[in-house]
Amino acid sequence: MAYELFVSLRHLRAKRTQKFISLNTWISIGGVALGVMALIVVIAVMSGFGKDLRDKILGTTSHAVITNINRSGISDVDKIIQQVNSVPGVAAASPFIMNHVMLTHGDSVSGIVIRGVDVVNKGRVSDLEKNLIKGSLNFLETEKNKPEGKSAKFSQAGAILGKELARRSGLRVGDVVSMVSPSSRITPMGLIPKMKVFHVAGIFESGMFEYDANLAFISIPAAQNFFSMKNKVTGIEVWVDDIEAADTIAVAIQEKLKFPFFVRDWMRMNKNLFSALQLEKVMMFVILILIILVAAFNIVSTLFMVVMEKTKEIAILKSMGATRQSIIKIFSYQGLIIGLVGTFLGCAGGFTIVPNLNEIVGFIENIFGFTAFPSDVYYLDKLPSEIQYMDSFLIVVFSIVICFVASLYPAWRASRLNPVEGLRYE
After folding, report:
1. How far is residue 267 from each of residues 84, 250, 271, measured CA to CA in Å?
2. I need a surface site. Which of 136, 164, 184, 346 has the fewest CB within 10 A?
3. What share of the chain is helix, strand, coil (3-state, %, to 5)?
4. How far apart are CA 253 and CA 270, in angstroms?
């Protein structure tokens, strides 16, 4: 062990006359530990929220969407799907139809988004089937494909509604609803809006209020018949093997299909939302790093008091041949040790709290008698959290560097001490 490190460790040990300095040392260690722990927990929670939100969005929508710039729809569906499936990284592709309609049931009228989906592939490539809380995808089929033995109420085409939409309209599985298309047809009586009757084949819950309150699914044949699209579709949904590479795969699909097709990945379609989450994450990182800076100021004050207390020892060391660099090492090692111990304790606390966060929140709720995250507001059954090891590594590095830098100025001042001044009154 280098003698500079040995002396640093001896300085950090308390004596009877140095209780205040020792207390400041522990306060500095506690400040560093608290800052590191808070950073790890907050970053984990925000990352968990981001992942939970992403999973809910992608559970209802696709990883990428192909549309026609001319808005005339896509006709050669099978040919385009075959081209898309040949792109490396593509897991599946499926056509869809999307339009706005008015849903009416009794006195209830709602403007919603209707999506025509491939009944055969939709359950395989998305989480729609997993999100179903009532009913089945099989009932989306039209009358000619309906299972035998079903009652007459299933003679209409089926529709799967969002949970909030069904609750708001007072609908249950098996009920009959009317949908009115904004496009009209010409008759001898003038323009008449298109209207079609559907039965409620199922109810889904995605966890996203906007989807659950404003979205409904029907089969593609029913949508083509309703919107008079013949063999055309609005676009093609694409699912990829690696969602983080969706932007690169979307570019490859765009290069393959070229004009007039336009490909957008899920990150571009939800850019504002995820950019806001990322900005919040960065700002929380900056704000919480201030806790470590406060601890760094404690380190500076602690080391200055050590320098004042150890004036005689510093003078003796220098008179025995210790160089300025050695004195700087002695005191900078003290700041480094405080940073290492505080960071280690903070990491241990953070990695212990994050996996048990929901139990801790539940314990606090039981003590104070309140609900931190009401399910009807946040659509959360638990607090999402996910430890980010790369972010945690950066937090550790920042913490140690800040503590080390904070010790340099007091160490430099100690190295400038004149041995004669230190020993004059001894």
Report:
1. 19, 11, 5
2. 184
3. 60, 20, 20
4. 19
SS3 category, 61: coil
CB 170 within 8 A of CB 180: no
Q: How many CB atoms lie within 10 A of CB 225?
A: 17
- At 20, list the tokens: 């205040």
Distance separating alpha carbons of residues 326 and 328, to the nearest angstrom:
5
* Residues in a beta bridge with 94: 237
Contact 396, 39 (CB under 8 A): no
C-beta of residue 89 within 8 angstroms of C-beta of residue 240: yes
Q: Does the predicted TM-score (pTM) go above 0.90?
A: no
The number of beta carbons lying within 10 Å of the beta carbon of residue 244 is 8
3-class SS of residue 88: coil
C-beta neighbour count of 119 within 10 angstroms:
21
- Asked if omega into 260 is within 30° of 0 (cis), the reply is yes
pLDDT tens column, 97-150: 888 899 988 888 888 999 888 876 654 455 677 788 888 777 666 444 444 444
The mean pLDDT values, 10 residues at a time, for the chain of 426 residues are 70 58 76 88 86 80 86 83 90 88 86 84 62 77 47 66 89 88 68 82 84 88 85 88 88 88 87 80 81 79 73 74 80 84 91 87 80 66 80 88 85 77 59
In DSSP notation, 258-321 reads -TTEEEEEHHHHTHHHHHHHHHHHHHHHHHHHHHHHHHHHHHHHHHHHHHHHTHHHHHHHHHTT
Distance of alpha carbon 357 from alpha carbon 372, whole angstroms: 12
In DSSP terms, which residues pair with 90 in a beta bridge?
Answer: 240
The answer to whether 395 and 291 have CB atoms below 8 angstroms apart is no
